[in-house]
Amino acid sequence: MTRSGEIRENVSLGTMNSLGIEARARYFVSVTTVEALRRALAWASEASVEPLLLGGGSNLVFAGDYPGLVIRIAIARRCWEQVSGDEATLVLGAGENWHESVLYAASSGYRGIENLALIPGTVGAAPVQNIGAYGTELQDTLVDIRALDRQTGNEVVLTNSLCHFSYRDSVFKHEPGRYVITEVRLRLSRTRPFSLDYRDLCDYFDGQDLRDLTPLDVASAVMAVRRRKLPDPEQLPNAGSFFKNQLCQWQPGSH
Ligand SMILES: Cc1cc2nc3c(=O)[nH]c(=O)nc-3n(C[C@H](O)[C@H](O)[C@H](O)COP(=O)(O)OP(=O)(O)OC[C@H]3O[C@@H](n4cnc5c(N)ncnc54)[C@H](O)[C@@H]3O)c2cc1C
Domain 8-73: which topology? Predict the structure, then answer.
């Protein structure tokens, strides 16, 4: 890989972060395969510049221009694996848009991630902070992730327990820069109960007949509730909520 090849210089990141900050990357590359990712990392190492992984830029704040190589993870893949009975495993490339993946699963009739609708960003960044909303977290459905381990140069599979998930936390935060997530596998089901205990969802569905509820109905409810609360970052750049939501979960029987 040469500077004049896949890697571009002095690239604006203004449209690549949800706050719309007009920072520039000294070097920039968008990778669509694991091989291209390997080449980009090797180039950064040879050029002695720090790489920065970029997904959708919705959880990054640029304090100025970035002096190293920004690697945008754009690995696309979406397929079903091991469909058996009511369950199926959804395989997603790290560069897939998270919200579109939720709608894809929900419109296929599979449950498990519908409460995570409208969370901005990519699939690959989702395990980093174990994204969560409305009573559901990524760890509830994640089977494993595939990643490039920069320490060894090997491709590794980390099962759910090896990701050490907790509230908005994971091994990826504790060993920053070590793993580049390239693929995520989720176990979804056609019959698992919906998670509707969160207060806003209880209120939304209050008085409705829930017998024929579909995962798409739940995703739509989550989208409606979220749109009432937060401006659309596409229209008005914002950082979402940047506090940890400790006390807002509705406990059954509390109203
Ligand atoms: C309006 C708004 C609402 C939000 N609502 C929620 C919410 O309800 N719940 C919630 O949990 N979060 C929420 N967030 C936070 C954000 O959506 C998540 O953190 C999301 O996972 C970030 O994805 P991204 O692709 O934009 O990551 P980026 O901002 O691009 O990157 C975030 C971090 O992950 C690293 N990273 C990116 N890709 C990879 C990869 N493939 N492998 C390893 N590391 C990688 C980056 O280097 C960086 O450190 C919200 C943000 C906004 C702006």
Answer: 3.30.43
Kindly write down the DSSP assignment for every residue of the chain, as one continuous string: --TTTT-EEEEE-GGGSTT----EEEEEEEE-SHHHHHHHHHHHHHTT--EEEESSSSS----S-EEEEEEEE----EEEEEEETTEEEEEEETTSBHHHHHHHHHHTT-BSSGGGTT--SBTTTTTTTT-EETTEEGGGTEEEEEEEETTT--EEEEEGGGGT-BTTB-HHHHSTTTEEEEEEEEEEESSSPP---SHHHHHHHTT---TT--HHHHHHHHHHHHHHHS--TTTS------S---S-PPPTT--
Q: How far is the CA of 198 from the centre of ligand 1 (A)?
A: 22
User: Is pLDDT above 50 for 255?
Assistant: no
Please provide the CATH number assigned to the domain covering 78-189: 3.30.465.10
> 233 versus 208: which is more confidently predicted?
208
Question: Is ligand 1 within 6 A of the CB of residue 215?
Answer: no
Nearest-CA residue for atom 36 of ligand 1: 125
Please tell me if the CB atom of residue 119 comes closer than 6 angstroms to any atom of ligand 1.
Answer: yes
Q: How far is the CA of 127 from the centre of ligand 1 (A)?
A: 9
Q: What's the CA-to-centroid distance between 58 and ligand 1, angstroms?
A: 5
Of 211 and 245, more confident? 211
CA-nearest residue for atom 19, ligand 1, is: 59
pLDDT digits (tens, 9 = 90+) for 181-227: 999 999 999 999 999 999 999 999 999 999 999 999 999 999 999 99
Domain boundaries, the chain: 8-73, 78-189
What is the per-residue pLDDT for 231? 80
Fold match flag (8-73 vs 78-189)? no
How many angstroms does the Cα of residue 93 sit away from the middle of ligand 1?
15
